[in-house]
Amino acid sequence: MSTDTFEDELRSLLRDSADAEGPAYVDVDPHAVVSSGRRVIRRRRLAAGAGIAAAVLAIGAAGAVVGGVGQNRADTTQPAGPTTGPGRGTVTVDLDVSSALQGTGTPAPNDPASVRVDLNEQGLKWQVSVIGADGRRTTKPVDTLPANPRFSTWAEVGDGPGLVVGVMPAAATDLVTVWRTDGVESSFSSAPVPGTDRQAFAVQYSFTPDPNVPGSTMFAGFDWTDGENVFTSSGTGVPSARLGDTVVFADDIQDVFGIFGAETTASKRLSDTPDGTLPAMMTGKVPDGSDTMQSTVLVLLPAGAQGVTVSAAPGATVQSVDTVPGGSTGRTMVLVRLAEPKASLGTGIERIRWTNPDGSAGSGQVG
Length: 367
What we know:
By secondary structure, the protein is mainly beta.
């Protein structure tokens, strides 16, 4: 499917969703991971996408939330407590994945209904049991967790690629997925492992494996935030900063940058930036009864950029500009908050200007 065709279909789907749900949300962008409430077990549905956002689209999205926001998506199962007391024996967590991709097609007969993660805190051992719709259970071999509490581990489970289950830090409040190729439709579930500093998670995604590559997968990992900083799945920190209720980051190693917001989380691949433009991505929301979209745009500038100024597009108003210096080598992150008509198809930014470390002037349009 071509990008243009996909964008047309995505616009149609998202606008239909907006008409149905009302103007309360303008959720955008890729690998989006949006919490639907403060629950013990969290559940999100994500959809692949690309292109620029207006009412419900986003710049360069590799995926965009198209449903599940505000809905009761909590699992009916609850995590079991430690069987032999806190810090001892085996702790078990159940995650319901039977409807993880609800609405995207008819589940295959061998699709799992749930997964069970057993973690032995004392020995840092964990294993996964996959429970099919018929109740049949398949247990995967035990793996070992490194002692580093920020480290995550996972494995493809089930009868084929498409379901990833693992253990990640309990401190993670949100994440964005990283794919080996274009973003795919996926869902994310998680639940704390009682008595430990870990949480179990499952990512289920649509994928047709390459018959010439045994065990091929598209899932490459993720970045996560604790609400202040951003880390890779191995626990390594990436350039990031908290600005108000938003955390921004740029991960050159995994080719992704993004925004962890209070209401919407979004990310984009750096390599998807059109030639001649600056890396940029956008999220936005239209308040109830309003004709104005409150948008947030993250733009990446060269290292050492300073004196940043933003020119608004016609009809848009720049409300604030926050700059996070990247030092002598890292990218400069610029977070721009704007108000613009909800029917706008752009970011609200006409041009951005800055001064380079050598005193020369820099200028560009967002991509």
